[in-house]
Design a protein that fits this description.
single chain; alpha+beta; two-stranded antiparallel sheet
């Protein structure tokens, strides 16, 4: 996964995201929240999401570079934490990256694995806590240590 420098969204767009997220958060059951998150996401077309996509494009290291495979076909707003598993993050700016359709829909999809390098006995000090995300053969996203010079 590429290291990205976060951009700031306008207050209007952040308010829009909070409004959408509040419609999810008030629901009592996780299944209801996940269904609502999916429904709201499918009808997300708005100026706010135009701004979000432009901000994500500016965060790319090149023209529409996918944060996972690093090809230049990134056109999807991707949830780092999948909205079906983490509906409480569905409309959270910090949960978005730009990915290509193949990685977003076919490889990663709703897969998500938390990798905490601080809890791993196999972490060498030469990596100094820098990791890239890669797809394992089963499609799970895993952290891969990155050497720091």
């Amino acid at each position: 996964m590429l290291l990205l420098n976060s951009k700031t969204l306008t207050a209007k767009t952040l308010t829009h995201l909070a409004s959408k997220q509040s419609q999810i958060d008030i629901l009592p059951k996780i299944k209801e929240k996940a269904e609502k998150a999916t429904k709201l996401w499918e009808s997300k077309a708005s100026k706010a999401f135009d701004e979000i996509k432009k901000a994500l494009e500016k965060m790319c290291v090149g023209l529409e570079i996918c944060v996972y495979c690093e090809n230049n076909e990134a056109t999807d707003i991707e949830h780092i934490y999948p909205k079906k598993l983490y509906p409480e993050k569905a409309f959270t700016w910090e949960n978005y990256v730009l990915a290509c359709n193949k990685c977003n829909s076919h490889h990663k999809s709703d897969k998500f694995k938390i990798f905490n390098p601080q809890n791993s006995a196999n972490v060498d000090s030469q990596f100094r806590g820098r990791y890239r995300l890669r797809f394992a053969r089963d499609g799970v996203v895993v952290g891969v240590p990155e050497l720091v010079a």
